[in-house]
Amino acid sequence: MRKAFLSLLAVMLLLGVWAAAAPIKITFNTLFHEADAKAMEKIIQMFNEEYKGKIEVELIQGRWAQYYAELRLSVLAGTPPQIGICHTNKLVEMADYLTPLNASPVGNLLEMAGIDPTKYVEAAWAAGELDGRHYLIPLDTHGWGLWYNKDIFAEVGLDPDNPPRTLAEFIDACERIKAAGYYAFHPAEDALPRKLRRAWYVFFWQMGGQLFDEGYTRATFNNPKGLLALQFLVDIFNDFGWNEPGSNGYNQFAAGKLGMLVAGNWFYGTAVKSGVNWGYAPMPNFFGVPYTWGNSHQIVIPLQPKGTPKEVYLAAMEVIKFISEHSHIWTMYGGHIAAYKPAAENPELMASEYWTRSGKWLNEMAQKGLVHYPINHPKGSELEHAIQAQIELAVNGVISPQEALAKAEEECNKILQGG
Amino acid sequence: MRWIKRYGPYLVLYGVAFLWIIPILWMADTAFKPTRDIFSIPPKWIPSHFTTEHVQRLFAEWPFARWLLNSLIVAGSVTLGSLLVSVPAAFSFSRLRWKGRDAVFMFLLVFMLLPWQVNVIPLFFMMTKFRFLNTYQGVALPIIAMPIGVFLLRQFFINIPRDLEDAARIDGCSSLGVLLRVILPLSRPVLAAFGVYIFNYAWNEFFWSMICLRKPQMVTLPVGLKILQGAFEIDYGLILAGAFMASLPSLAVFLLLRRQIIRGFTLAGSGVKG
Amino acid sequence: MGLKGRGAIPAPFSKMRKRIGRFFYRHPGIEGFLFALPYISLWAAFLAWPVVYGIYISLFDWDPLRGSKFVGFANYVELFREPRFWNAVINTFKFAGMAIPLILGLGLIFALMVWGWGRTRRGIVAVQASLFFPYLLTVSIVAIVWKWLLERDMGLFQHYLSSLFPSAPVFLTEPAWALPAIAVATAWWLAGYRMLVFQAGLEEIPVELFESAEIDGALPHHKLVHLILPLLKPSLLFALVLTTISAFRTFGQVLIMTEGGPGWASEVLALYLYRVGFDYFDIGKAAASGVVLLFLILVITLLGVKLLGLKSELQ
Question: What is the pTM of this model?
Answer without folding.
Answer: 0.88
